[in-house]
Amino acid sequence: MTSTQNSSEPLMDVWLRLPGGLPMRYLCRRSEDCDTPCFVMARFNEPALRYQICSSEELELPVVAEGLSKDFRKEEEMNEAYRDSLSELIAELKKTGGKTVISRVVSDHTDLSPEEIFARLCAAYPAAAVCQWQADGGRWFAATPELLLHADAERLQTMSLAGTRPANSTTADWSRKNKQEQQMVTDFILSTLRSLNLSPEAQVPCTLQAGPVEHICTRISAPRKDADPLTVAEALSPTPAVAGLPREESLKRISRIEQHPRAYYAGFFGLLDAEESNFFVTLRCMKLSPSGAVGIYVGGGITADSTPEAEWDETCNKAHTLLSILH
């Protein structure tokens, strides 16, 4: 274990498994003047907060039993409030164009311990960034496939990730709605990086699987020059993949339509270091209360080509990725 000096300030217990890495436990203290490496956490559409890493050690996880409930699905009927609000939004977007991401919270309950949930997430999603932290009277979890920003001494890397359908689809091509939605994200990222005097390059879009669903992914990179990684990450967040475009108008619509605070959902987290920094969008996100109640945050990008029924099904598919972990 590595550690820094003690203080009376409360510590935040963070568990983090980066893609391809070992699960680590960090005890962190809120500090704007912290040395690197430090843990970074941002709520949706809020400035990132830095946490000094006071101690770190490899996290020992419980053994995950084989045969997780891959087919578990919570049957939900679309409620009228969701149908009406999306119908109104779609009609508005037919006039204005653009995209707005609308989320909802799926309620559930689990008897699993936080350690068991984290271990299951790591086992089920080996290519994802998996994180657990304590805040707002509960424990938050994320198992996200979406890289917001990777920075090393030479280059910056990010990805445009949008569009959702069940994994291993028999249809080779993506729908027009999904391709348009993902292209909006790509265009925004390229424009944002250029506004920071960077020279981004985009690869050819590909399909990226994330558990039982898959997305369209375009990988984007740029020479780092003298760019500050956290400044770039905050400029990119929230991306159109979790907010929409035009961004400011989408944020107003989210505030008007959604009946819950997003809190950490669709924000970002990661490690800031002088040598290498990694930040991830907080997706596949849920909050566990001490009683075992769970709130799973899921959303979908609404465009003029959307239908309430298809968007409801998309959020059910996304919820399935976490419900399968809890049962």
Give the helix/strand layout.
Blueprint: E1 2-3, E2 12-17, E3 24-30, E4 38-42, E5 49-58, H1 80-96, E6 99-109, H2 114-124, E7 129-135, E8 138-144, E9 147-151, E10 155-166, H3 176-195, E11 201-202, E12 206-210, E13 213-223, H4 229-236, E14 244-245, H5 247-257, E15 268-272, E16 277-281, E17 285-288, E18 293-302, H6 308-326
Antiparallel strand pairs: 1-5, 2-3, 2-7, 3-5, 4-5, 4-15, 6-14, 6-18, 7-8, 8-17, 9-10, 9-16, 10-13, 11-13, 12-13, 15-16, 17-18
How would you portray this structure in words?
The protein has 327 residues and is α+β, with helices and mostly antiparallel strands. The protein contains six helices and 18 strands. It has an 18-stranded antiparallel β-sheet that branches.
User: How do the SSEs run, as a string of H and E?
Assistant: EEEEEHEHEEEEHEEEHEHEEEEH
Instruction: Name the beta content range.
Output: 35-45%
CATH topology grouping? Anthranilate synthase
Number of strands: 18
Total of DSSP H or I helical runs spanning 4+ residues: 6
Which stretches are low in confidence, meaning pLDDT under 50 for 5 or more residues running? none
Whole-angstrom Rg: 19 Å
Distance between the termini: 34 Å
